[in-house]
């Protein structure tokens, strides 16, 4: 696939996706959305890729959101089934995705980060859902994910004022997992990804799917139904399910196959 608006690097079982439109602070338009949807389709389908990291090109921006200049000039809006950047409506991916936020994460850029499982932010990162300032609304998941992740009142405080939030405050609010010095967000995200990849990928996928599905229902129903979740059934039927206890009993590192 010829990539024009993003770059993909693979390090072992880790896929690093870089949003690459630095001339517009990595803001995205329709062609970029369709490209990124294919990138994340490929990641989701590749059995040898276990964790993904998404970051932005340059040191100023993760993603400034929707390319408003493109829109104002008459550019067509839209995205594929995966949503903004191929991520915001990608509800069927059970592999962990980490946002390495290295600067501005505004509007859709913040919504991309919120759609990830972890957010690692550099000290110069800034987050906001500023859509109301330009007559829009954060309809790529921000209005739903932020209240679920930090609570209603805190989310309302950000959304209704459209204010900017620093990485430090994002950590205090609870949507940022770790704050690191400027320039170190990607390295820190790789550290997190490498730690995740030491675990059974089958167990990680089962855990993510169970959390996501469980949050959609009552605790009792979730615990009753969890063994029927596809990723849990796949874990139980996998070779990793045998390898883990065997490696533990033999006092050696497990050799995960991801199947």
Automatic annotation (TrEMBL):
Listed InterPro entries: ClpP/crotonase-like_dom_sf (IPR029045), Enoyl-CoA_hyd/isom_CS (IPR018376), Enoyl-CoA_hydra/iso (IPR001753), Enoyl-CoA_hydra_C (IPR014748)
Q: Does the keyword Lyase apply?
A: yes
Q: EC number(s) in its UniProt entry?
A: 4.2.1.17
Q: What class of enzyme is it?
A: lyase
What does the similarity note say? Belongs to the enoyl-CoA hydratase/isomerase family.
Gene Ontology terms describing biological process: fatty acid beta-oxidation
Query: Has UniProt tagged this entry with the keyword Cell inner membrane?
Result: no
Lineage of this protein's species? Bacteria, Pseudomonadati, Pseudomonadota, Alphaproteobacteria, Hyphomicrobiales
Q: What protein does this entry describe?
A: Enoyl-CoA hydratase
Q: Which organism was this protein described from?
A: Bradyrhizobium macuxiense
């Amino acid at each position: 696939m010829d990539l024009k608006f993003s770059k993909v690097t693979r390090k072992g079982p880790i896929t690093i996706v870089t949003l690459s439109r630095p001339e517009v602070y990595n803001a995205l338009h329709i062609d970029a959305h369709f490209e990124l949807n294919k990138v994340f389709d490929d990641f989701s389908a590749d059995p040898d890729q276990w964790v993904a990291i998404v970051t932005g090109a340059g040191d100023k921006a993760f993603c400034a959101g929707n390319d408003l200049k493109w829109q104002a000039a008459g550019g067509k809006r839209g995205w594929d089934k995966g949503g903004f950047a191929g991520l915001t409506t990608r509800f069927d991916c059970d592999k962990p995705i980490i946002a390495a936020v290295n600067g501005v994460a505004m509007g859709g850029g913040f919504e991309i980060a919120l759609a990830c499982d972890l957010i690692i932010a550099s000290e110069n990162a800034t987050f906001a859902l500023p859509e109301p300032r330009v007559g829009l609304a954060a309809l790529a998941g921000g209005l739903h994910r932020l209240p679920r992740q930090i609570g209603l009142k805190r989310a309302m405080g950000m959304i209704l004022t459209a204010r900017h939030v620093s990485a430090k405050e994002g950590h205090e609010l609870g949507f940022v997992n770790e704050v690191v010095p400027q320039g170190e967000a990607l390295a820190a995200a790789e550290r997190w990804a490498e730690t995740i990849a030491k675990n059974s990928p089958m167990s990680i996928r089962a855990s993510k799917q169970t959390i996501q599905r469980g949050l959609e229902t009552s605790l009792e129903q979730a615990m009753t139904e969890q063994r029927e979740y596809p990723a849990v059934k796949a874990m139980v039927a996998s070779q990793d399910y045998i390898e883990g206890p065997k490696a533990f009993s033999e006092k050696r590192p497990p050799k995960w196959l991801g199947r």
